[in-house]
């Protein structure tokens, strides 16, 4: 068992709570993205025993990160929103050089790849303008229809969890179930949690195999899309500039800290060189 994956999973779990930050981005920062996609795909095949030592500790960390740090992240976003968002902004910016290197952008990218990157970035950035209001948890009632909607939202969110740049939280907001989902986690509303988890599990099965296929078949186009998603997500995470001097100074430190952590971790990890097999 790779027990180091518990802390990696915890970081990925925390990222799922924050609109604009993707678990896939955190996997890139940690240098385990290719291995993650490969292992999830293998887990739902005859090679599940090979994937289990990697995924089990990671899954424990993800669940633990959500349950243990959910309230802490909620407090940070409520009391210190701007510096916290700048930290995650630094994480995203810091992983972009890794994508340049992994995607061999200087040598392999063609004009069509750069156009794809810009198109994806613009489309995702526009969501920051047209994103609907979150569904109010007080008005959410679990019925057959809303249960199906939760299931579909979970399946759609699972795809985004595996794609760097677009967060599961944003997808849940788009479906109008982000607030009910957070409320269910905080109050341990098991029916709502079960429906979401079931949808996420099914989405994982389908999306992991699709992402693995495109990474194999269209690697440069895939990295072009990933880079576009990362660039577009900056518009969702950027909180604006606070006028208070103390907040500006703290935000500068958290931005630099996030960038340094992503750049050093992603650039120095041996795992990042592992390709999908």
UniProtKB/TrEMBL annotation:
UniProt keywords, alphabetically: Membrane, Transmembrane, Transmembrane helix
Chain ranges passing through the membrane: 6-33, 54-78, 84-100, 112-131, 161-178, 190-208, 220-241, 247-263
Xref: InterPro entries: VCA0040-like (IPR007163)
Coiled-coil stretches: none
Top-level lineage group: Bacteria
Protein's UniProt name: Membrane protein
Species in which this protein is naturally found: Salisediminibacterium halotolerans
